[in-house]
């Protein structure tokens, strides 16, 4: 279960606090167990700061806090506070991650059976797709849908999203695609073969949360080999 620590404090020395945190991050590089840290300042009271530190679990948090350097930096931080900092330990019982949810729903929708939905709830009207195997970028919702329909007409497929990383308006997903070749694909008639392809897609999300741009990297050469398209070249 995800675990969060809230550290609330008042300080008249915010610059020194920032330098301490920068130094701590540099010293603890590669050993930190936290996955995300956020510091907020009270708009009505500039001396009032709240730090939110997220961990994969309570056990991970305790493993990190048990290190000597963690205890030292907390004591140094407390010394910069005007009063004793207040700590809260929270088990996360509900978390919404809109950017990650959008990307996961995108992959689920691409592989869903039946008619391809309009996708206008997921993609911006002027969505821009970069794919190194295409001679030109795909621009616009209609063109993106046409490209997805081409893949769907050739394969019955499913995506497994292995990892998702989110930073600001960028989301990176590592995925595995498993499919059965049911129709013509780039001139290759249906083979009935089961195929697998791995790849990574970087997404840029617009301010309204829709996907505005994508960068695809996938093993299409490996896919063509599985379909037998390279057999003559290998003989």
From TrEMBL:
An annotated GO BP: polyketide metabolic process
Keyword Isomerase in annotation: yes
Query: What are the alphabetically sorted keywords of the record?
Result: Isomerase
Classification via InterPro entries: Cyclase_SnoaL-like, NTF2-like_dom_sf
Task: Give the top-rank taxon of the lineage listed in the UniProt record for this protein.
Answer: Bacteria
**Where along the sequence do coiled-coil regions lie?**
none
- Extract the Gene3D superfamilies matched here: 3.10.450.50
Q: Name one Pfam family in it.
A: SnoaL
Which GO molecular function, any one, fits this protein according to its record?
A: isomerase activity
According to UniProt, the name of this protein is: Steroid delta-isomerase-like uncharacterized protein
Species this chain originates from:
Streptomyces murinus
Lineage, top ranks: Bacteria, Bacillati, Actinomycetota, Actinomycetes, Kitasatosporales
């Amino acid at each position: 279960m995800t675990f969060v620590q809230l550290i609330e404090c008042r300080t008249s020395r915010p610059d020194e606090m920032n330098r301490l945190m920068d130094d701590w991050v540099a010293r603890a590089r590669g050993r930190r167990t936290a996955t995300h840290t956020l510091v907020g300042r009270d708009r009505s009271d500039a001396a009032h700061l709240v730090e939110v530190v997220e961990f994969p679990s309570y056990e991970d948090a305790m493993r990190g806090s048990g290190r000597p350097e963690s205890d030292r930096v907390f004591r140094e931080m407390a010394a910069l506070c005007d009063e004793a900092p207040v700590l809260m330990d929270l088990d996360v019982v509900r978390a919404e991650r809109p950017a990650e949810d959008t990307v996961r729903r995108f992959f689920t929708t691409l592989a869903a059976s039946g008619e391809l939905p309009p996708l206008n709830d997921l993609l911006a009207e002027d969505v821009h797709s970069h794919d190194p195997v295409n001679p030109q970028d795909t621009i616009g919702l209609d063109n993106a849908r046409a490209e997805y329909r081409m893949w769907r007409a050739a394969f019955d497929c499913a995506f497994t999203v292995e990892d998702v990383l989110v930073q600001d308006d960028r989301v990176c997903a590592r995925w595995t695609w498993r499919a059965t070749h049911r129709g013509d694909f780039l001139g290759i008639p249906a083979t009935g073969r089961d195929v697998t392809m791995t790849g990574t897609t970087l997404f840029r999300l617009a301010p309204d949360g829709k996907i505005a741009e994508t960068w695809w990297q996938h093993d299409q050469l490996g896919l063509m080999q599985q379909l037998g398209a390279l057999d003559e070249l290998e003989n």
